[in-house]
Amino acid sequence: MTMGDREIVGPITRQRRATFSMTRRGSLKTPNEFNGGLNAKSVGKGKTDRKGQKSQTNGNPNETNKRKSHGDRLSCHKLHESLLSSSSGFSNYRGILNWCVVMLVLSNARLFLENLLKYGILVDPIQIVSLFLKDPNSWPAACLVLVCHVFVIMALYVERQLAKGSISEQFGMFIHFLNLSIILCFPMATVLCLPSITPVGGAFSLGVYTILFLKLYSYKDVNKWCRERRQTEARSLSRSLSCPSTPTASDSTQTHISYPGNLSLQDLYYFVFAPTLCYELNFPRCPRIRMGFLLRRLFEMLLLAQLLVGLIQQWMVPVIQSSMKPLQEMDFSRMVERLLRLAIPNHLIWLIFFYWFFHSSMNFMAEVLKFGDREFYRDWWNSETVTYFWQNWNIPVHKWCLRHFYKPLLRRGASKWASQSAVFFLSAFFHEYLVSVPLRMFRLWAFMGMMAQLPLAFFVSRYLRGNYGNAAVWMSLIIGQPIAVLMYVHDYYVLHYAERP
């Protein structure tokens, strides 16, 4: 090797040694990367070293994200509220609801098993049928129901005469009010005078006449509004005056009737059987009958009716019979115990009856008649006030009271509170009418129970809110009804069976 070669190799060897010494201190880098790192080190920004001086890094954002992700993996705490706190915003309590349902089923299963072990099987459908077949030639309650068609035809005849102008408006209103008064008084006198009418038959016939009274009252009012509007030469009615609505796509194919074209026997009887209490000239109609929906409702009606009869025979009657002695002896502690025992089956029967009547039966009739308005109830189970419950659990009655009783009182100058009190008074009257007359005794327990809703509504709306108000409404339903049931059953027992051995 020559001298020139040594001079060339020497610097190269020294450069390699320096490179290897640097790789021992840090990561292996190529010379270009090393030089690039030196350049970046001279101009880049870094973090402060131990002496407080600013150490320089390459400023790569990936390294910062890696450090943050590494810190997140080490952290296990975040800002959280407990799920049962109202501030957490958590609302999915479906599991707790399922737990409540399971506990309710298990507790009632225990009570039902205890009832079977103590009383045996008391359900006897033949006994219920025998009440109607015992004397097939004399069904006074059914005959009483058939007589109601006379009052329907009378209302139609009066309206036709008023439409033609054959009688004056004052005389027509007098005939209407006379007809409506007889509708209430005639079945009451028949039930009180005929001992052969049982309490169940009497309650059924009086219920039919009460519904007919409300329907014919609405029929009278709407036709009167039509005459008044026709006299003022306004546009012809396509719907009821107080319930205007625009025709929908399903209504466009229907023939709209205007007054007095609605004064026909077919139109009136459609309203009589329709699941509503408020008359209109043109009801919303469905395009067809859904047979699947109709059969499901029919099956529910038959099944739930048997279930109601079985629960009354098996569960409610024994509890009521065992409550007579504590009530006669005025044993307060045992009376409270019997009341709580009666509260569960009574409330369960009431809930089943609500579903059977307001959902199954009324939807069945609506489907048969192609009646379009199926809003028979709203979410009364979410009621936070007593007023909200009474406005939403029975929509047909609420619409009638609002349309034909509450708003007319307001238009005549009555205050809002006085009008609401009058509505509760009317409801209390019909509750007492449907209970006291079939039992042939007047104790006013139902009337006082309904009127007690006024102070209860004031107290709940003023002092209770949210879940507390909803709990108060449920408590009034669960406890209030058994109290009235026990009072009537006790008085009926004392009146008819106390002196018998």
Describe this entry's structure for a reader.
The chain is built from 18 helices and no strands. With 501 residues, it is mainly α. The longest helix is centred in the middle third of the chain and has 39 residues, at 291-329. Residues 1-57 and 234-253 have low confidence and may be disordered.
Average pLDDT rating:
79
Please report which band the strand proportion falls in: under 5%, 5-15%, 15-25%, 25-35%, 35-45% or over 45%: under 5%
Question: Based on helices, strands and strand pairing, what is the structural class?
Answer: mainly alpha
Distance between the termini: 143 Å
* Rg calculated over all Cα atoms: 40 Å
Q: Total strand count, please?
A: 0
Major sheet: none
Number of continuous helical runs: 18
Encode the helix/strand succession as letters: HHHHHHHHHHHHHHHHHH
Unreliably modeled segments: 1-57, 234-253
Helical percent range?
55-70%
Shape: globular
Write the layout of secondary structure elements.
Layout: H1 3-25, H2 31-43, H3 61-74, H4 94-119, H5 125-133, H6 140-147, H7 149-164, H8 169-193, H9 199-231, H10 265-273, H11 291-329, H12 332-368, H13 386-392, H14 395-411, H15 416-439, H16 445-451, H17 453-463, H18 466-496
Helix pairs in contact: 6-9, 7-8, 7-9, 8-9, 9-15, 11-12, 11-18, 12-18, 14-15, 15-16
In short:
The chain has helices spanning 3-25, 31-43, 61-74, 94-119, 125-133, 140-147, 149-164, 169-193, 199-231, 265-273, 291-329, 332-368, 386-392, 395-411, 416-439, 445-451, 453-463, 466-496. The protein has 501 residues and is mostly helical.
